[in-house]
Amino acid sequence: MDNLSIKGKWNELKGSLKEKYAELTDDDLLYEEGQEDKLIGKLQQKLGKSREEVIDLLKSA
C-alpha cells in the first residue's frame, strides 16, 4: 500500500478530514511513519467504516 501516499501531504489531508468529519480529533489523526495500520484502525472505529472505505477516504481526500 504505498504508505497511502500521505507522507508528504499529511497536514493538508488532515485538514480535509477534519472538515468532513468534525468528530475527528488531533489524536485520531496522529500519523507516524510506518504506523498506517494504527491510523486506519483508529479511523475505522471512530467513523464506523470498513478498512477499504477508510483507505479510499484517505486516498481521495
UniProtKB/TrEMBL annotation:
Domain spans labelled CsbD-like: 6-54
The name this protein goes by in its record: Uncharacterized conserved protein YjbJ, UPF0337 family
UniProt-listed Pfam families: CsbD
Family: Belongs to the UPF0337 (CsbD) family.
Classification via PANTHER family: UPF0337 PROTEIN YJBJ
InterPro entries with a match to the protein in the record: CsbD (IPR008462), UPF0337_stress_rsp (IPR050423), YjbJ_sf (IPR036629)
